Amino acid sequence: MPSPSSPIHPPTPKRLGFFSRLLDDAPAGERYRLVAEQIAHAEALGFDSAWVAQHHFHEHEGGLPSPLVFLAHVAARTHRIRLGTGIITLPLENAVRVAEDAIVLDLLAGGRLDVGVGTGGTPESFAAFGHDSEDRSALFARQLAVLRNAWAGQPLPGGDMLYPAAQQLLGRIWQATFSVAGGTRAGLAGDGLMLSRTQPRPGDAPDASLSALQNPIIDAYLAALPAGTTPRIVGSRSLFVADSRKEALRLADTGLRRAAARFAALAAAPGSAPRLGPDAPLEQLITAYDGHVGTPEDVIASLRADTTLERVTDLVFQAHSIDPPHAAILRSIELTATEVAPALGWVPRHAPTATPRTALPQPASEPA
What we know:
This protein is of the alpha/beta class.
């Protein structure tokens, strides 16, 4: 127990983020318009950050190959919300060009950029860039070193130095990982840690909870973090909130079975347990794909059971793999900001500028 004279420091309020893989059921240009609107809506409701993922080629996995270009567009129509990449697949990029594009975007956005990086990308994507997926870890380490050196103002090969200067971005790097070793790597570097909304289960522990896999990553990260460095930990989660549990489950049934069918067509990674297929009962699919679905009361209860979230600094929610229609995503953002996130320790830093709607119209009946 602290002595009466010991200062008591209240826990730092968590930040709230919105995340998108840009998977709205629409052509590419419309996807970009819809997600830009979703991010603007999140800002108006007080969200602290918005993150977008990068994916090459596979439009059912992700709809955005150029996240910094997209975020430049979003920066022009927002004012306060921080903008992040979650993630740039660094092994497939020219690190010097990433360094240049990122600093230009950060300057245009008024210092609002966070840069999440990782080894990601489906194995098939590497060949088009002249790389082998087996080399992703070595490629990532090499590219991240170039990125850091460029932002630090170190001479690049040939002697040139990055312009504009970008040292401020060195403190805004985040590393995504599925592994304890990755948590150690991010901690040693003093970077932020990004934890995924879901991840493969080991073959010998197919029913392990997501927190059982991710708490050891946080432990390794914190143990490796240099003394005096403030932890930065994103906990991303699949969240879909609706005004009625029936409507939430109806949309989840469509989206999760669609996602499960795609996973069923893929071979499990070596050492990983296979994922449930599309014919499994809905509640099992929600559990297997680490979803939080239902009314605000439903999802607050399920999120509170996730012990990882007690330890993160940033709660970041995405509607994947439910991927409901645009209007339902907007309503989920509203319910998250007004009911769910405050129950989990989020305190708005800015007054909302949007008024949530009362509810979405509900279908009159299910089709026969």
